[in-house]
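Sample entry (339 residues):
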Amino acid sequence: MSEYKDRLFGMTLTELQNVAQTLSLPKFVAKQMADWLYKKGIDSIDQMGNISQKNRDLLSQSYEIGKVKPASEWVSVDGTKKYLFEVGQKYAIESVYIPEDDRATLCVSCQVGCKMNCEFCMTGKQGFSANLTTNEILNQIASIPDSAKLTNVVYMGMGEPMDNLDAVLKSLEILTSEWGYAWSPKRITVSTVGLKKGLGKFLAESRCHLAVSLHNPFPQQRREFMPAEKAWSITDVIDEIKKYDFSGQRRVSFEYTMFKGWNDSDKHATALAELLAGLECRVNLIRFHTIPGAKIEGTSNETMVSFRDKLNKKGITATIRRSRGEDIFGACGMLSSNN
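Predicted structure, serialized as tokens:
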């Protein structure tokens, strides 16, 4: 691809209409372009068969489709696949394809690295380099070999979605709009460590599911492992979430990676249940996947089961998430383009 051409893939219908207007093309050409880009999945402007050759040539002078294949692929013993994509001139990001019996999920990245610097996350340890564009977010979905098999997408890869919210919201618009991929919002989950500044906008402008990386119900302890707590307290974040309705088809879940002696006691289970009381939600308990240089240790399976049962008895639906792709550094908290 030429660095001098704008990319059509990743543009909303409004943006495609602006392209048509700029080039003095008929307004209906924008809808035709959207159809080719998102429903037919073309790779070249020349493939837009119902647009005249003259207009295709005009488009090609300033624009390209802008889809890029993965640069590398790793396959886990459990069938999970991790992909590395080159972005820009000097960066790379990773995404993870997770096949199951009745579904196939892609975990996508929204930033190169991450600013949040959570103690237990390799992406955070990498540091932050750049926000991804809408094109680079959606390219992960469109350009993997198993793209047609996808049933779900989770924004749980590299980066903090609420820290790149405009590009994330545009990607969600394209995924869920009738002129785009026409996915149900129920197929998409967006995660956050709890950036309150973007949370309200996301909840108001999207119907996709929300996942909050909680990990400790006590703000002072949470701050030790999650510096974002200093700016956005988890108690304030949950108060914000409680303003919205999650009793219907939209879900909110809380991610809780368990660490020995830090967040796995009875008092933590009790405090967590009290924090989430009155909120229709689910808690996903996650095994800690050891990362290089980590001085922390994961909780035993027995303690995780006991913690889950305590939450369930207190009226909080809790499950233990199955680990996938750990052998290829594709599991939760293990993504890093510095690998």
